[in-house]
Amino acid sequence: MQVKHSLKNSDKQITYYLTEELGKGCFGQVWGGIDSNQIPVAIKIFHFTDDKNLKAWVNEISNQIGFDHKNIVKIYDFFIDTEPYTSNTRLVIVMEKALTSLDKYLQINKNFSSIHVCWIGCQLCDGLFEIHNSTVIHRDLTLRNILLFPGYHVKIADFGISQRKSDLYLPIVSNTGFPNAIPPEILQQGYSDFQSDIYQLGLILLTLLTGQEPIPQNLDREIINHLINEGQPRKIAESLIEKFGNLAYIISCMLRRRLEWRYQSVLELREDLDKELRNIQMIQMIQMNQIVKNFNQEFYQ
């Protein structure tokens, strides 16, 4: 494992060794590496070029640092660092390291079964319930911000544009780096609420179920906005009800354009997903029992 860069938190006397670049975003880079104790970590570096980056760094720390939940990525450390040679200021966040992100995993595995989609949905609801219970709205739930850990464990990451409930009714200039993931209320009214996260979670589950995004990213922005306002994701989910049954109906409810027609809370959504998960498991068990019965009849009669 080749060390390409290193960062040091002088206050804690901990050095972080950067070994691989995991990705880039509008605020900076994410690296994989290890700390002084050989513990794997992910290191997000914000380049302090303007107040926007500083706000994103502060947001991510203040809205994520307090969580200790199995479905939320944990922050280990954060500090301000000076880049060698240039003396540029870098804002650093050190987090637990995942195996991959859901968007990368989807590129190599497009066959998510209904039971997998329900299982992932239930986990994300658990994490989102904890977030909402702390009066935080995430506002950027996308495939790239859902990370996979051993045991098919999923965790929510990237709180860079999250907001506290007390700030939610301030006008929102931008919501996400992905225009095709913007909830209708952002486009129409410029405001978001807890149910905006439910809408984005619906987009994630629909994408996993079909293997492709309901609204492609590469479309013209005007076309994307039109499809969002016309409820295209919900229409796609409704068209899948005959094939996927109640799971597609649940997702369609998550994607309704008006807040009052969506699920009113993550807890309500979690109950429906859990019920559907148990129904699918029961059906699969019955089907497996029938397969075993047919096998026995074939060979023992």
From TrEMBL:
Gene3D superfamilies: Phosphorylase Kinase, domain 1, Transferase(Phosphotransferase) domain 1. The lineage of its organism: Bacteria, Bacillati, Cyanobacteriota, Cyanophyceae, Nostocales. One of its GO terms (molecular function) is ATP binding. The keyword Transmembrane does not apply. It holds the Pfam family Pkinase. Keywords: ATP-binding, Kinase, Nucleotide-binding, Transferase. Residues 16-301 form the Protein kinase domain. This is Protein kinase. GO terms for cellular component: cytoplasm. ATP binds at K44.
